[in-house]
Amino acid sequence: MKRIFVCLFSLVILGAVKAQDKPVINASMNKVKLNFMLDADGKAAYSVFYGDKPVINNSYLGIKLVDDNSFDKDFVLTGSEKSNVDESWQPVWGEVKNIRNHYEQVVVHLKQKTAPGRLMNIIFRVFDDGVGFRYEFPKQPGLKYFIVADELTEFSLTGDHKTFWIPGDYDSNEYQYTISPLSQVDASVLAKSATDIAVRFVPDKYGIQTPLMMKTSEGLYINIHEAALSNYTSMQLHVDTKTFKLTANLVPDAVGNKAYMLVPCSTPWRTIIVSDKAADILASKMILNLNEPSKIENTSWIKPMKFVGIWLEMQTGKSTWNYADRADTLGADGKLIPNGKHGGNTANVKRYIDFAANNGIQGVLVEGWNVGWEDWFGNWKENVFDFVTPYPDFDVEAITDYAASKGIKMIMHNETSGSATNYERQMDTAFRFMNKYGYTSVKTGYVGRIIPRGEHHDGPWMVAHYVRVAQKAAQYHVMLDAHEPVRPTGLQRTYPNWMACEAGRGNEYNLFSSGNNPGHETIMPFTRLMGGPMDYTPGIFNINGYSTVPGRQVHTTLVKQLALYVTMYSPLQMAADMPDSYEKHMDAFQFIKDVAVDWDDTKIIEAEPGEYITIARKEKGAANWYVGAVTNENGRNAVIPLDFLDKDKKYVATVYADGADADWKLNPGSYQITKFLVKAGTKLNIKLANGGGAAISIKPATTADDGLKFYK
Ligand code: NOJ
Ligand code: CA
């Protein structure tokens, strides 16, 4: 009892919470410990420890309602329940075959002393890699409908941690990461200068986005995000740069509200993942575990795949999405005047289908196939696209037949230009069109200011919209890859047809802008990808061949582009370059042909945010392993112990390594491919160039490999 008192006292000093008049409730799982308490004013607070190290000092919890800002105090504890869960489940697709969901749960029941005695529960789940909590509003006489004005959730950090952050932009996640102490966060300067991003809105100078990755001076890695975001709005964080207290900043709707609730209801989970090993952060399944199981019963039609697409051509200016230069000037025949550069034409599509079919790539995406692209961007227009009318040079029936004859799945592209209302009106028609022409997946896009006007990409209206699209797609058995949506929060467990999102700064920025710095891909898995798979569009081989702008190039070596297939997890993986580029390097392209997109197992071999990541993954239902290693602008030796291989088995490792003279800037295209025999216990030692990487395929050896030497 005495010891507890001492501990509480020190927490009070550390955080801003006033002396308690109530006992602490706690829960723990291995090293992670959660304390809950009420202060003298009846305000709820919590703290988190990892071993004996504080992770979150005493931090207040609460919600503020519109027209009533008293729903965060005067609480009394009416009870609490503890339970333990230890179960396993199998995702439809994923990084591992089995996911263990093991936590201790505490439900804290609170009641306000003042009339009408409103009730609020806080549910904590403590895992061995962190804590998730959510507010729950049970059925009660004193509260029925309410509007959330603000969430008062705090995360009081213990110091000026090293932080990997992007601005808290209500409309975009497409930023490069800044690595700085929390005290140096200034989002407005960055947002202003990010002119390569189409739509930006960063009202809070100290606002930052989640998933937020931090490292303490004591070597703790902390990640803050949320899970199961639907029927609410997304949470960004406001940083107090003096006290290092983060406060939830909910993205508002067009009239400034955050969420419209009807009890019984609950908020999304707030997540704090913590470990003294960076690799554990990447391996965490906490966010998935906090999401609901699949709502789709029959998932047999959901199939991970690789795809190529008529896409990079437009990103680099070789061809255009639009068929004509202007929509308001027609030819003598009353039709659009072709500009002669339209990429999505039948002959070109067939070329990509042939390339895919010849190389075992399952899908082909075609952008710019439908009318509207002449004035798609920047005009805030409501009705730009109808999603069913092809340009005159895109023969949808011929393409469908041709793709079917070659066993290729066509991927639909529905760019909404941000007009979500238009898309909602057209959605059934659009999905029926996909069903009719055999399209099994769709890439959506939201480039532009959102309609309904005044809403934001990350606001509550749009959060609900993206979920509606996933549900509608499921109804039509279509897989979804959403570009420019709110960043994911693990909803792919609940809607496994929602395969991927962009919601971050993709590889495409390396094509049309000053690019992504070489450290970018060593940060993304710790930030954006914590919520779910990313359609990063890896596989650009023509590293410095696309731009006439001096210095503009892809900021990686060619080999690092291969490694990204393993380190940037997605069940939909694009081979983003054009066939001509691949045809020049078919030996390196072999890795893209081989690499899997669905996995039985994943081992994070080594990782440090901003520095390097090495991951090994075992192909679903096969004995093959694939390894990807990436580094930032500094070269390094990746040491990769192959402990995960079956004992008593011989394997062939094909190592795609940076050439001895490779360097992302000076010589990005230099690579070497070697083959060795390896076995469990072999330790590979591979040099990664500055901005480079390594990609390795490991397959069981056959008699044909007898002539190969063992790796030394
Ligand atoms: C932005 C997307 O991220 C990109 O992949 C797409 O090509 C364009 N929008 C056009 O829709
Ligand atoms: Ca984008």
Walkthrough of the structure:
This protein is an alpha+beta fold. Among the domains are: 3-289, Distorted Sandwich (Beta-galactosidase, Chain A, domain 5); 533-712, Aldolase class I (TIM Barrel, Alpha-Beta Barrel), CATH 3.20.20.70. The protein is built from 14 helices and 36 strands. The strands form six sheets. Strands 6, 7, 8, 9, 12, 13, 15, 16, 20 and 21 form a ten-stranded antiparallel beta sheet that branches. An eight-stranded antiparallel beta sheet has the order 1-2-3-4-11-18-17-14, with helices on one face. Strands 27-26-25-24-23-22-28 form a seven-stranded parallel beta sheet. The relative contact order is 0.09. The model is unreliable at 1-15 (pLDDT under 50). Calcium ion is lined by residues 174, 483-484, 502, 506.
In CATH terms, what is the architecture of the domain at 3-289? Distorted Sandwich
| Bound ligands, each once | 1-deoxynojirimycin, calcium ion
What is the CATH top level name of the domain at 3-289? Mainly Beta
Please, how many helices? 14
Record field, number of beta strands: 36
- Structural class, please? alpha+beta
Considering DSSP H and I runs of 4 or more, what fraction of the residues is helical? 10-25%
Quaternary status? single chain
Mean pLDDT: 96
Cα shape = globular
Give the uncertain stretches in residue-range form: 1-15
